[in-house]
Amino acid sequence: MLNDYPQVVTIAGSDSDGSAGMQADLLTFFAKRVYGATVITACVAGNSFGIHAGVNMSADFISQEFHDLATDFHIRAAKTGMLADATIINTVADNYEKYDFGPLVVDPVIITKHGDQLLEQVAFETLVNRLLPLAEVLTPNFFEAVKLTGLDPETPDFQAQAAHQLQQMGARNVMVKGRHDQADQTTVTDYVLLENGTNFELTEPYYETTHKNGTGDTLSAAITAELGLGHSVETAIRNAKTYVDACIKNGINVGHQFGPINHWATP
């Protein structure tokens, strides 16, 4: 029947080198065998050496993208990526509340895994107030969890405390990703807190490589794909984590400096 095939959408920026952003999301959707639609919020020009130019889409254009998808497709799950400013965040939130795009996975692109801030304060506050309460699944990296909660990152149970606080802020299910900046690091542990109170840790080997661009995008996209296939939140998170680990472990030699993970890897 029409629109029976599972369809999902990424609401994010376009990354011209294909390693992150919307391109990483679409590669993940393809690997997970779901149909991926897009709402472009921005475009950046860059390569494995860095980002060199960017432009944001207008609020009217973003709203038109939402409208056109809603009037033709059956979107079963959605995710957000980089939303560059407060206007874009408000526009995305307004349209997500207007249309039925299924459960929302929010990848709060605020700070890089190495601690560099990406969002200005006004945009950060808008994300907290408008987007977090819409999140079926929230996937902050370690430093984003610090920024969102204000908690001391050196607390032994920081990730658990942060996850509970983020639930109180409106996110229903939270995955606080582990640190990637420790000396002699051998593992990475993510902490998951589900809406029903279930919690668990996911620990995988740490791979020392320069080819990790788009890891967070891929994780949130894989969760979105799994939800679009009808899986539970817990199953979606576990399967997505296994997939991303395989993508990093079985690398692909693309780009001179900071390259992509391998979306064709199979766990």
Automatic annotation (TrEMBL):
EC number of the protein: 2.7.1.49, 2.7.4.7
Domain called Pyridoxamine kinase/Phosphomethylpyrimidine kinase: residue spans: 15-262
GO molecular function, one term: phosphomethylpyrimidine kinase activity
Pathway connected to this protein: Cofactor biosynthesis; thiamine diphosphate biosynthesis; 4-amino-2-methyl-5-diphosphomethylpyrimidine from 5-amino-1-(5-phospho-D-ribosyl)imidazole: step 2/3; Cofactor biosynthesis; thiamine diphosphate biosynthesis; 4-amino-2-methyl-5-diphosphomethylpyrimidine from 5-amino-1-(5-phospho-D-ribosyl)imidazole: step 3/3
InterPro entries cross-referenced by the UniProt entry: HMP/HMP-P_kinase_dom, PM/HMP-P_kinase-1, Ribokinase-like
Keywords: Kinase, Thiamine biosynthesis, Transferase
Catalytic reaction list: 4-amino-2-methyl-5-(phosphooxymethyl)pyrimidine + ATP = 4-amino-2-methyl-5-(diphosphooxymethyl)pyrimidine + ADP; 4-amino-5-hydroxymethyl-2-methylpyrimidine + ATP = 4-amino-2-methyl-5-(phosphooxymethyl)pyrimidine + ADP + H(+)
Any Pfam family the entry gives: Phos_pyr_kin
NCBIfam families: HMP-P_kinase
Family: Belongs to the ThiD family.
PANTHER family from the UniProt entry: HYDROXYMETHYLPYRIMIDINE_PHOSPHOMETHYLPYRIMIDINE KINASE THI20-RELATED, PHOSPHOMETHYLPYRIMIDINE KINASE
Protein's name in the database: Hydroxymethylpyrimidine/phosphomethylpyrimidine kinase
Protein's organism: Fructilactobacillus myrtifloralis
Lineage, top ranks: Bacteria, Bacillati, Bacillota, Bacilli, Lactobacillales
